[in-house]
Amino acid sequence: MKDVLLVLLIFPFCILSAQQEKLCEEYKQVGFTTYTPKTLPIFLGCESFKEKNDSLNICNRNFIASKIAEKMDSEFSPDAKHDDSRQYYKVAVLMNISFQGKLALSIENRRENAFEDELELVLNEISTETTGIVPAKYENGTCSRFLYKLPISFDLTATKYEEFIKNLN
After folding, report:
1. What is the value of pTM for the model shown?
2. In a domain, 30, yes or no
3. Which residue range forms the structural domain that includes residue 137?
4. Residues 2-19: pLDDT tens digits?
């Protein structure tokens, strides 16, 4: 009798934990939806901000921008004031996270030039190597695609692109 009670008490916990770890299903909505997901995508290292969407947005932005800056041999300073003596190049990076947690990075309004050509290669590399993203989820637990727009200013002073940026101004 004790064994039966023990099994009956443990069984519901096993079911609940199995449901939390299930793979995401795409939210099927007919037409356009304006629903906002309950939780935003979560990048590795940002798990502690799971319940705070504003802090999570900042953490996600810093995660991707730091990777881009590192691979482009540039610096990322999110709230820096621009120095007029420096040469900056502004670009908007689109971060598209699928309902499966796959990342696709691209440049918004891409222009054909040497800097954006190299940046596009870096974004593709970061997209393929970034894993472990928890997708955005709705109240009912279904996963959602999510799109971020990340404006970045690159300081191209004293880089191989310094002449390029001078020609743009």
Report:
1. 0.71
2. no
3. 35-168
4. 565 445 555 554 444 444
